[in-house]
Amino acid sequence: MRFTKMRLLVAFAAIVLLVIFVIWFLGRDTSGQAEAAPLPPEVLAAAVVTRDYAPRSTYTGTLAAVETVELKPRVSGRILEVSVPEGRIVRQGQRLFKIDPAPFQARLAAAKAATQEVRARLGLAQVESERARRLVEEGVVAQQRADEADAALAERTAQLASARANERVAELDLAYTSIEAPITGRVGKILVTRGNMVGSGETATPLTTIVSVDSLYVEFNVDEATYLAALVQAQEQGSSERPPVQVRLEDGSVRSARLDFIGNTLDEGTGTIPVRAILSNRDGRLAPGLFAEVEIAIGAVRPTVLISDLAVGVEQGLRYVLVLDRQNETQYRPVQLGGLVGDLRVVEDGLAAGERIVVKGLAGPGMKVRPRMISMTARTPAKDDNAGRAAQ
Length: 392
Hints:
Layout: H1 2-36, E1 42-47, E2 49-53, E3 56-65, E4 68-71, E5 77-82, E6 89-90, E7 95-99, H2 102-138, H3 143-176, E8 178-180, E9 185-187, E10 197-198, E11 208-211, E12 215-223, H4 224-237, E13 245-249, E14 254-262, E15 272-280, E16 291-297, E17 302-307, E18 313-315, E19 318-324, E20 330-334, E21 336-341, E22 344-349, E23 356-360, E24 370-373
Parallel strand pairs: 1-24
Antiparallel strand pairs: 1-23, 2-17, 3-12, 3-16, 4-11, 5-7, 5-10, 6-9, 7-8, 9-11, 12-15, 13-14, 13-16, 14-15, 17-22, 18-19, 19-20, 19-23, 21-22
Helix pairs in contact: 2-3
């Protein structure tokens, strides 16, 4: 009996020790887990930017020359000299080609000789006219003789005028053998080389083409809504009140332009109206034929929310951002985006001034994060380049 009680006491003590060990073990494990719990992920975040901005519509345009000259000879002959630099800028009045002047020098000399001959005959006719007039006054000859002398004088006078005109034509033809640039611009490919015969006139073979480059047109078509919203009012107010135009080129550079022409007829096939703007190209970097994006202001200036494109995620065709609340938890927010203003994107709907959004980092909707605030326009550090946006 006594042995049985001892066994029960030992068993009870063993059970108590086992319970104490289990409680100690579980408590130690929970404490370790608490100490090892990970911190929320760090993300780059920024406050949205608010600026005054006018809504814009964007169109695709093509650059065109303001002046284009197809250079053709005005006299026929053999090309003696080609001094035009292909693809280079030439100035108005700069000599580009030289046609053999010898035949035209001879024609000018002949024209001058003919003028001298007619001038001599005119002098004789004047003497004869004066003599006949005296003789008529003295009654020696009839009036008919004086009339004939006056007619001869008038004929010689007309012949002198004709000779002088022929001499002037010969001078012009000789001057036309030196072919000069009619405008300042960029020369195209040379189509006729030295030694070749060239014709003259409208049907002659062009020698080259020159396009002006100091200013260029950008031609594009706008839809009916833009025409009614912005351009009709601008057309009525005059050029000084026309909406501003921005031209974005393929290299990302942006240039200001001004509206130069607004069409008056809607193309029924495309539903658009032709519009043209003019922009400066004094550095000569642009050329006709280049494509460009054209932005036209279509509304009044108003406060507008701008964000970096890096902050925008795309899911099933919808664009969204992750907004941070006061507890630094992310919230999924769909947004409607507009055009670019510098390096920032216009947010037409979905965000308000003062809100913070995740710009870059491993985060998803409903996650708690540790935001590191940066400027919306700042470049993100390279070490974050491999970070991605977690799927919703």
